[in-house]
Specification:
heterodimer, A: 111 residues, mainly beta, 11 strands, 0% helix, 58% strand, B: 114 residues, 7-stranded mixed beta sheet
């Protein structure tokens, strides 16, 4: 069954540095993949989604992710971190009509 | 327009009590999903509705949990004989229809069972 694994429950980067959050998926069929963000005391918000069109997907707030079938990965990146990016990030995959979430990675931004 | 709303935002109850959690989806969204998020975990699927019917309830942990959506809009998640392990944030999401995968989440209800 489809699932995702997020590597690193906590990631710290300096303000202005590259953000890289890792996600690997497991799927027997071509998946749909997602990144969601959860700011403190707020609901989940969709950052971006991959639905088998372009392998490089651009999302909101300057984030993007690249689908790499050979590596079964869908890592999230942002060239330059901002303090407002501090949040919990969840990678997710579709299973039937549901979305299955990873355990999340908390991103800390160091001044 | 209005997003997904959930009430109450916080609920504290005693072990063994019954609770109801309400979700108001975005108007016109036919699919509605319930998730449970425990501390330090990602959202865990519980059940989803397409219209009034539960299309998939495979995530409900046991028969103490039940959900309804009688008119295809508002949904209520019901938990009987609550246990301390039920303490979590319960999230609701809606989408235009099932399978579109663009789900819009509410802020959640934090349930604490003492």
């Amino acid at each position: 069954a489809q699932s995702v694994t997020q590597l690193g429950s906590h990631v710290s980067v300096s303000e202005g540095a590259l953000v890289l959050l890792r996600c690997n998926y497991s799927s027997s069929v071509p998946p749909y993949l997602f990144w969601y963000v959860q700011y403190p005391n707020q609901g989940l918000q969709l950052l971006l989604k991959y639905t088998s069109a372009a392998t490089l997907v651009k999302g909101i707030n300057g984030f993007e992710a690249e689908f790499k079938k050979s590596e079964t990965s869908f890592h999230l990146t942002k060239p330059s971190a901002h303090m407002s990016d501090a949040a919990e990030y969840f990678c997710a995959v579709n299973r039937d009509d549901k979305i299955i979430f990873g355990k999340g990675t908390r991103l800390h931004i160091l001044p | 327009g209005a997003g997904v709303s959930q009430t109450p935002s916080n609920k504290v109850t005693e072990k063994g009590k019954y609770v109801e959690l309400r979700c108001d989806p975005i108007s016109g969204h036919t699919a509605l999903y319930w998730y449970r998020q425990s501390l330090g975990q990602g959202p865990e699927f519980l059940i989803y509705f397409q219209g009034t019917g539960a299309a998939d309830d495979s995530g409900l942990p046991n028969d103490r949990f039940f959900a309804v959506r009688p008119e295809g809009s508002v949904s209520t998640l019901k938990i009987q004989r609550t246990e301390r392990g039920d303490s979590a944030v319960y999230l609701c999401a809606s989408s235009r229809e099932a399978g579109t995968y663009e789900q819009y989440f509410g802020p959640g209800t934090r349930l604490t069972v003492t």
